Amino acid sequence: MERGHSMEFVGNYNDVEISVTAWKYNKTVIMASTFAGEKPLEKVMRYDKKTKNRVEIIRPHVIKEYNKHMGDVDLLDSIIALQKILMRSKKWYMRVFFIC
Asked: pTM above 0.90?
């Protein structure tokens, strides 16, 4: 795949549509979502190391939505990291139980 190319696969699980989109950026990025899919596509400007110029590539809608809300997830992760867990466990569900 060349840079900017994307493919979408849509499946249905328990009457919920799940869209899996693969997008070639510098490497292939794979996103699964029940909220957004590949369409509508939009053109964005990105820097290309090979030509040392800005080039126009096509970006799927799910990538745009992810980038828009990515900062909120990072903030939540940093807040969770500040909480001291009194009992250590390697199982994630036990950590959630001890925090609550």
From this structure: no
